[in-house]
Amino acid sequence: MAVQKDRVRFNVGGKIFETTATTLAIAGRESYFGAMFDENWDLQINPAGEHFIDRNPDCFSILLDLLRTGELYIPPNLPEKLLYREALFYGLMDHVRSAKWGQFDGNRLQPSKSVTGRAPGDGTAIRASSDGGCCVAHGSMVHIYDWMLEEHPPINLDYQRVNDAGWVGPVDPTGLVISTCERLGRGQGGMGLFNSTTGELRYKFNVTHDGVAKSYTAGALSFSDDCKLFSSCKGRSNEYGIGVWDQTTGQQVDFFYEPQGWSLGDADKLQWLNGSNCLLVATLFPRKDNCYISLLDFRSKSMVWSWSDMWSPVNSDDRRVRDAIAMEENSSICVVNEFEDLGFMDLRRDAGSVRWSSRSRLMKGKMPDEPCYPKLALHDGQLFSSMNDCISVFCGSDWVLTSRLRRSFGGSICDFSIGGDRLFALHSEENVFDIWETPPPPIV
């Protein structure tokens, strides 16, 4: 990009501003100002001498300073929502977000805000979107929040309990898949793709068996990079297993039926592994008395790796696994027990034993009366584990505990999610969720 010294004049809502082409170029090609340059980044001069924009001049001044300095200062008398609306018009939302919080780092996270739901307790899941918003499943309702934490119209599933929710991703930023329980006698349940902005149901994902559409309960969700949607499924006869759909058309493309003596249809967690083209399926206590973890290869319709605690001694730590996550770079699976001990299994060994790490032990004494079982997440080489009212951060090749995130309001953490450079933590007792952000780096 050539450095230019050409001065540019704007008349914004009757107020005159002057800047340089170099400053405007910082906005990027996809912005309002990027359209003022040709393919060689030469500014197209307006013959009238100035560019008139019929927008808010106070917001324009703030956004222009953001391009000049990289810092965002919002005066107390200016509504943030107004500024964000103007930033959206100019195509500067990414610049605003980068100035408000920095690149995600679990060891530098700070609490930003807490949002209280309309009804206490019974939160099912929280899922972060790629742009910094989230959705919260609560009973038969899904509440949608954009990155400004403004709530959109909730999605009501007509008293069908929500089991999971997931954002489709960059291909469809407003697309939200919701899985629900079947309602006996009504032939409903399953999954649907919704518009997260309007709440409109676009289409349902059907399960067919022997050419006949079946009613079913959809559970855990996962998405692949090639636009495949996976869900655990429970039908009334033979529809127990993992269904696969094309998320752009809603058509079922595959089904992995549950082998006898194993558990797939009740899975608590699914995770697509891009490197190995396999799906991690984990069915855990208390949904089942035993824990079942497996890797499925849909190309060969085979279970290429599996582990269960069925053959472990009754009093061993293996009997207390509460969550699992695959780590492809290390060819291992990390599990966590009810005391937040981390355990590791080598994927290169079939049905290997769990190697427990005593250095991760954080809980002492007995569990609280109504515990929330720990959940795991992996993000940019950092491992996160929730336990009661805090989230622990582990780093390094030996997964050493480096930080703990805790907020006392709302009770135990029943779920958390990372996305859009934010961490969202949902509390069980008061239906409150916290937002954690990394402070932006200092401007030198």
Please describe what this structure looks like.
The protein is mainly beta and 444 residues long. It is built from four helices and 33 strands. Strands 4-33-32-31 form a four-stranded antiparallel β-sheet, with no helix packed on it. It has a four-stranded antiparallel β-sheet with strand order 5-6-7-8, with no helix packed on it. A four-stranded antiparallel β-sheet has the order 9-10-11-12, with no helix packed on it. Helix 2 crosses helix 3. It is globular, with a radius of gyration of 25 Å. 39% of the residues are buried. The mean pLDDT is 87. Pathway: Protein modification; protein ubiquitination. This is BTB domain-containing protein. Residues 6-76 form the BTB domain. InterPro entries: Beta_prop_At2g24240 (IPR057441), BTB/POZ_dom (IPR000210), Quinoprotein_ADH-like_sf (IPR011047), SKP1/BTB/POZ_sf (IPR011333), T1-type_BTB (IPR003131). It comes from Lactuca virosa.
